[in-house]
Amino acid sequence: MLQRFKSFLIGKPLSNEAMEHERYSVLWGLPILSSDAISSVAYAGQEMLIVLIPAIGILAFGKMAFLSGAIVALLVILTISYRQTIDSYPNGGGAYIVAKDNISVPAGVTAGAALALDYILTVAVSVSSGVEQITSAISVLKPYSVIICVTLVLLIMIGNLRGLRESSRMFGLPAYAFIFALLSMIVWGFIRYSTGFRAPEPTYQITMNMLMPLLLLKAFSSGCTALTGVEAVSNGVPNFKAPAVKHAKTVLLLLSLIILFLFGGTSILANLYHVIPGDRALLILIAEQVFGNSSFMYYFVTATTFIILIMAANTSYSDFPLLLSVMAKEGYAPRQLSMRGDRLSFSNGILLLSGVAIILIIIFQAKVTALIGLYAVGVFLSFTLSQFGMFKRWRRVKGKHWHYKASVNGFGALVTCIVVIIISISKFSEGAWIVVLLIPILVFLILKVKKHYTSVSIQLSMTKDELNEIDFDRDVYINRVIVPIESVNKTSVRAIRYAKTISDNVTAFNVSIDEESGNKIREKYDMLDTDIPLIVKYSPFRKIVEPLLEFIESAEYEYRKGDMITVMLPQFATKKLWHRLLHNGSRAYIERQLLKHKHIVVSVMPLHLKD
Amino acid sequence: MLQRFKSFLIGKPLSNEAMEHERYSVLWGLPILSSDAISSVAYAGQEMLIVLIPAIGILAFGKMAFLSGAIVALLVILTISYRQTIDSYPNGGGAYIVAKDNISVPAGVTAGAALALDYILTVAVSVSSGVEQITSAISVLKPYSVIICVTLVLLIMIGNLRGLRESSRMFGLPAYAFIFALLSMIVWGFIRYSTGFRAPEPTYQITMNMLMPLLLLKAFSSGCTALTGVEAVSNGVPNFKAPAVKHAKTVLLLLSLIILFLFGGTSILANLYHVIPGDRALLILIAEQVFGNSSFMYYFVTATTFIILIMAANTSYSDFPLLLSVMAKEGYAPRQLSMRGDRLSFSNGILLLSGVAIILIIIFQAKVTALIGLYAVGVFLSFTLSQFGMFKRWRRVKGKHWHYKASVNGFGALVTCIVVIIISISKFSEGAWIVVLLIPILVFLILKVKKHYTSVSIQLSMTKDELNEIDFDRDVYINRVIVPIESVNKTSVRAIRYAKTISDNVTAFNVSIDEESGNKIREKYDMLDTDIPLIVKYSPFRKIVEPLLEFIESAEYEYRKGDMITVMLPQFATKKLWHRLLHNGSRAYIERQLLKHKHIVVSVMPLHLKD
Predict the structure, then answer these.
(1) What is the Cα–Cα distance from B182 to A497, expressed in whole angstroms?
(2) % residues pLDDT > 90 (chain A)
(3) Can you give the pLDDT at residue B185?
(4) Which of A449, A497, A601 lies nearest to residue B605, judging by beta carbons?
(5) Neighbour tally for B610: CB within 10 Å
(6) What is the bridge-based pairing of β-strands A534-538 and A505-512?
(7) Distance of alpha carbon A427 from its chain centroid, rounded?
(8) Which of B372, B374, B406, B371 is nearest to B387 (CA)?
(9) A429 compared with B254, residue with greater pLDDT
(10) Which of residues 307-366 of A touch B (CB under 8 A)?
(11) Does the CB of A603 have a partner CB in chain B at under 8 Å?
């Protein structure tokens, strides 16, 4: 039944061959890989104004236009840089790979950790912002923000567990609808303004005192969130249909153009119409000014903004698990993350991403302004490492125009590095400290994981010579069997019968709480009339494992070093799931304790209950 | 390290022999078994006034005195009834046992379920009320009520996991301090009043409209919570030092006298001083009137009331696990509940009680008035069943003065039955419906559990004749071994070596995702130069269990019905706990899937990693 429910939620399993058909074209790849980047238009500008307006009032709009220009310039640099990365890394040039290949393993791992963190934050920020749009229009929903966010994350999770292609279908159309909605708003906004429409001038309450440079840096840091998600395309190159490189580069270019138009356009509109975001979201306020608050277009902008933001989280759902699976395959993350699930998606990564994002949403109560402090440090750190890696790469491999290419990437590295420093400092007390602290910790853990896997593989590996030398027939040890029995019944008889087939040295073993019950068992056991000895031990501490281990080591057992001991444990297999609660309470515990000993093998024998 | 931490928290393990020393004297038994009953003085009267005052203003105090008289009369009846029960059931005469013995199994199980529910509610109500006392005196703590309550439950839990005697020491003195504090308050309160002191008359806002009879019944129901906990003594008879019956009867009598004085006395004081509980607790308000709000005695009453209430929860911690262990031993609850832990307390019962109580506290936000609606139905239902059971018992066993004894218990049954009906109806919409619904569900589940255990024991049991007939040397089946290998390394070599000692029919088995990796393994395997065949299967769905099961059933394997198949699974034993996360991700899953098949035994072989 559980299986059927899973299959209903997740869809039927797909075979490995189905992989080929699960790749993106430009048309569907653009929305799925760019929704994160595009959607950040919904909050980047808004968060800039939330920093600026309380401090400098109407002057905020002018400064915002200036800062937006700087951010767009940054976008252009990143786009040129990343197109070079796609060319050089057709198999997926995430910052992790580029930095590891060209700088060092710790640099690569740092980029990986930073990106992983930011993917998680993307989910939290996007979903929270999406819900904020909706609650701006429908204010009765406001108290339920957190619950709505969590539900949405779970829905996206299920969608992604169903596999790639269905995601891209599911997420493609709304992205185009959003682009259409915003372009219409920008165009109509300009027309209305140029025909002389003026919104009533709002009043400003200037409450904060802050130094202008720090203020601008803070606003710039908030605005930089518009560029998160740009790297998604270069990570996802192998997910494109052939020719993958060409398709990926096209998508990246289109993506940048779209961000340029939408981010630039809405920044200018905000300036023209002087709207003040706060309780309500910026885009919704602009739409109200441009279209009026009961027009179809007002609701269309609200709805598509909401949807694109929810979908933006989906970008993380295709990249986070992929990143972790690449790291896991190389031993830099737990192996489980490298296994694809029934529907060819990396189920464990998807579950991990959803879990942490939900925790963040609950902690920060789904508030975008609170989450934004943590955001973007990670992305820009990985930008820097990736660009610097490319720079070193050009200096190593040379090739045509390498001077030009190296300087493009070098400049990108320099600029993004400055941005990292700006964000870390200006947003430090607003949450960036968490990320600044967390990244080194993650890097430390990742390197520990790798060290462990390396050590294990050395411990397990055998050389050709060693393999050739093995002779399975030479000095084979004796296998002894101990059958712990609680009472003499069908289980114990069955276990003893099995034990006899695998060894000539079988011992039955019972732990009794008092002598009376011990004698009862012996009496019943004697009826079996077998030559297999029964040992009864009295355990004052009601322990089972300790008396058994003591017995094994006692002279009574005559254990010869090098022999193996197989301990039989019964396992009730129940038909009804809840019956399991009524059995096997201590089996797992005993098994774990026994397996701490090298010379003990635990044999679990199922006993099938009818009811 | 975990072991050491546990030992620090819980104390060193105690052996079975230590049981004898863990029993109560009258001096220490009185506080530990009666703190529930005594402490209910802190909320019973208060909850009556909370019902009455908003409806009838100053008239409430007169009605309260009248209702308190009725409740004290009920207490007298119960005390006489229960002393007879202790005489008849020296091994612990909980309502469960009395009803099961004398009425029927469903009646006993109903009493057990009702009591179990009320023990849980006792923890939730007592702790919440205790914290309410403290926040009445120190109002800055009010917002943290829920967290404080949860922490306290956890502390009591740890105290109880440490074992009985330490509990009684820990909980004895504060109970006496509380009794002393309240008696002082009552005496001083009477003296002050008789010397002419009058508190300023408060103003009443009469806001509710309710029919007088219903109002009185509601208040009476709230007041009846004063009697919860009276049955604790008769349940706990075997926990007393010899002569247990005499000690238990003495404790019950003392307990009733204390309740009579404290409950009666505070009711009269509330009446004399006309205090209005609401935001602040009744006892604290009275103490303020009697002693003044900055005197030592004011704080002494606050502190001891707080402590006795917290300790009251402890009554449940000695009775709930005992009740469940008795039920579990007879198969009416999961077996795990009948096992004593390291310190001779029933650890699982203690953990279960704490868990559910914490959930209740969180759901009802630690509000006594909200929890009180659920309370007392269960207790009075078990009173009724227990008294009716005793009534039937006297009619059966007769004996000296049986007519008198039967009529005492019969009258007790009748009165408490009426109380059950009153509480269920008058508190129905305030939460009693939950209990009224839950008890039949619990009874149903308990009977299901019993049915399952009975069915299992029938399935497992063997008659003498069957035991005598067994001949372990006759028609022994063949044991075959399959060794699934991921690659050819030390693990697989070790597993094959072991397999050869337990069977002559060994097969190595590999599941590859593609042919390339399959060929690689075969190549390496051939170096071993062994006659054990290697089967390589290609799994398009990345599944491991299914190809193995298909292979077993295929003609290729030549499986003969009746043979057993042992499947070897490696288990990495890691030194560091967190390394476990990096391994064995799929082992438990594979084991569970394989054990669904009767003819498969799973042998788990530990592989000890150095680092």
Answers:
(1) 69
(2) 21
(3) 93
(4) A601
(5) 9
(6) parallel
(7) 24
(8) B406
(9) B254
(10) 334-336, 339-340, 342
(11) yes
**pLDDT for the residue numbered B14:** 59
Task: Spell out the CATH class of B479-608.
Answer: alpha beta
Could you give the C-alpha distances from A571 to A592, B460, B593, in angstroms and in order? 14, 13, 13
Q: Is the ipTM of this complex over 0.85?
A: no
Q: Do domains A22-454 and A479-608 have the same CATH topology?
A: no
Pick the more confident residue, B242 or A485.
A485
3-state secondary structure (DSSP) of residue A363: helix
Report pLDDT for B194: 86
Chain A residue with the nearest C-alpha to that of B607:
A598
E strands, A451-563, where? 479-484, 505-512, 534-538
HEC per residue, B240-257: ECCCHHHHHHHHHHHHHH
Confidence of residue A128 (pLDDT cuts 50, 70, 90): very high
Q: Where are the beta strands (DSSP E) in B447-493?
A: 479-484
Domain boundaries, chain A: 22-454, 479-608
**Residue-level pLDDT at A410:** 92
Task: Write the DSSP assignment of B24-41 as a string of letters.
Answer: B-HHHHHHHHHHHHHHTH
Contact: B502, A479; criterion CB under 8 Å: yes
Tell me the Ramachandran region of residue B399: left when phi exceeds 0, alpha when psi lies from -120 to 50, beta otherwise: left
CA dist., res. B65 & res. B63, Å (int): 5
Q: Which of A516, A534, A517, A538 is nearest to A525 (CA)?
A: A534
Shortest CA distance to B507 belongs to which of B536, B464, B544?
B536
Residue B221: Cβ within 10 Å count: 28
Q: How many Å apart are CA B189 and CA B302, to the nearest integer? A: 16
Are the Cβ atoms of A17 and B540 closer than 8 angstroms? Answer: yes
Report how far residue A303's alpha carbon sits from residue B460's, in angstroms, rounded to the nearest whole number. Answer: 63
Parts of chain B with a pLDDT under 50 = none
Full-model pTM: 0.68
pLDDT at B22: 62
DSSP string, A132-183: HHHHHH-GGGGGGHHHHHHHHHHHHHHHHHT-HHHHHHHHHHHHHHHHHHHH
Which pLDDT does position A341 carry in this prediction?
64
**Contact (CB, 8 A) for B50 and B223:** no
Tell me the per-residue pLDDT of A68-110, one tens digit each, with 9 for 90 and over: 889 989 999 999 888 888 888 887 767 888 999 899 999 999 9
Superfamily designation of domain B2-454: Amino acid/polyamine transporter I (1.20.1740.10)
CA dihedral B93, B95, B98, B99 (to 10 degrees): -170
Mean pLDDT within A337-362? 82
Please state, rounded to an integer, the average pLDDT across all residues of chain A.
84
* A12 close to B (CB below 8 A): no
Distance CA B63, CA B219 (A): 9
Helix H or strand E segment including B607: strand B600-608
A 541-580 residues with CB < 8 A to B: 541-542, 564, 566, 571-573, 579
Tell how far CA B327 is from the center of its chain.
Answer: 12
Give the span between the Cα atoms of A510 and A547, in whole angstroms: 9
The verdict on A3 touching B (C-beta cutoff 8 Å) is no
Sign, Cα dihedral of A294, A298, A304, A306: negative
Give the C-alpha separation, B565 to B601, whole Å. 6
Of the candidates A455, A460, A530, the beta carbon closest to that of B491 is on A460
Rounded CA gap, A216 and B463, in Å?
88
The three state secondary structure string of B305-325 is HHHHHHHHHHHHHHHHHHHHH
Domain range A22-454, CATH class: mainly alpha
What was the pLDDT predicted at B170? 63
Q: How many residues does chain A have?
A: 611
pLDDT at A159 over 90: no
A480 phi, psi to nearest 5 deg: -110, 150
